[in-house]
Amino acid sequence: MREVAHPLVRQLRFARSELVRCLEGVSEEDAVRRLPPMNCLSWIVGHLANHDHRNWVVMGLGQSVAPGLEELVGGGRPASTPPLAEMWAAWRAVTRSADPYLDGLTTARLRDHLEAGGRRFPETIGTMLLRLIYHYWFHIGEAHAIRQALGHPDLPEFVGDMAAARYEPD
């Protein structure tokens, strides 16, 4: 395990923390309210957990800690309104399982490709990491819009304290 995570891994962790900050205090009732064509807030949590799970736990480690998540909240699936508590539990299990893999990433390793089912994934690990960071930010913005539409007051300001995500070349 590296003493300090790669700068892109720190950025992913910052994006994850911003998701948590964005959804702090959301009730179970509001989390499952869907304002079509958008998905609901609980779906967003599960959907991002699914992306982390697929990349780092399934493809990176060859394990699974969240069976059924892809079918429930995967891209292109029918809209669903899963319970928020269940999606946070899945998200925590996935990110906790993925973190040791992420901690081992080096600049050299980010140039490699993962394999799944005997096939090489077309994007490098670094590009996959960037895609996931951007995916988090996309859905954080969507979550803010949903919260505004639901009439939630005092939403967190964008972007939070970057002390843990300062730019430092690796």
Give the terminus-to-terminus CA distance: 15 Å
Q: Estimate the strand proportion.
A: 5-15%
Task: Tell me the strand order in the biggest sheet.
Answer: 1-2
Indicate the percent of residues in helices: 40-55%
| Total domain units | 1
- DSSP strand tally: 2
CATH architecture: Up-down Bundle
Mean pLDDT: 93
**Shape, per Cα inertia axes:** globular
Gyration radius (Cα, Å) is 16 Å
Order of helices and strands: HHHHHEEH
The helix tally amounts to 6
Most strands sheet:
2 strands, antiparallel
Name the poorly predicted regions: none
CATH topology: Four Helix Bundle (Hemerythrin (Met), subunit A)
- Sheet/helix structural class: mainly alpha
Describe the protein's architecture and organization.
With 170 residues, the chain is mostly helical. The protein has one domain: dinb family like domain (Four Helix Bundle (Hemerythrin (Met), subunit A)). It is built from six helices and two strands, in the order αααααββα. Strand 1 and strand 2 form a beta hairpin. The longest helix is centred in the last third of the chain and has 25 residues. The protein starts with 6 loop residues before the first helix and ends in a 21-residue tail after the last helix. The relative contact order is 0.21.
Compact overview of the structure:
Helices cover 54% and strands 6% of the residues.
